[in-house]
Amino acid sequence: MAHSSSGTRNRVIWLTGLGAALAIAVLVSPFASSDPDGLDRVAQDHGFDAKAVEKPAAHQLPFHSIFDEYALRGVPETIATPLAGLLGTLVTFGLAWGVGKLMVRGRSPQEALPETPEHGSYDSSDDAPLR
User: Fold this and answer.
1) 94: domain range?
2) Is residue 39 part of a domain?
3) Which of 55-59, 86-90, 98-102 has the lowest mean pLDDT?
4) Angle at alpha carbon of residue 78, lines to 29 and 44, rounded to 5°
5) DSSP annotation string for 65-109
6) Residues 65, 73 contacting (CB under 8 angstroms)
7) pTM, whole model, 2 decimals?
8) Has residue 59 got a pLDDT over 70?
């Protein structure tokens, strides 16, 4: 029974975090500055932006045909950045969730619980100060 309420609590935490991240990505991204970001600005300030590679390696990646800087290609400009933020947040969440699932794969719910008095295998001598 304790595991069920713990699972529900974890789900609420995950969904709240995802909701907050999506809200920020969609609602705040339209207000992002159009000024160059840190690396671009340093390159401009020090005059080596003209030495940039004509076809950088990032342009060879499959998602480059979908995204243009921080916006989606082929989408009206007013929603291109918020939509890119939404998709990027969902992909990042999905990857984090998937990696987390793979890391705990094969472990039973009982193994995932910490060893405490209510879950057994607890030795109070563990609480003794180290010498």
Assistant:
1) 1-32+59-112
2) no
3) 55-59
4) 60
5) GTEETTEETTS-HHHHHHHHHHHHHHHHHHHHHHHHHHHHTT--H
6) yes
7) 0.62
8) yes
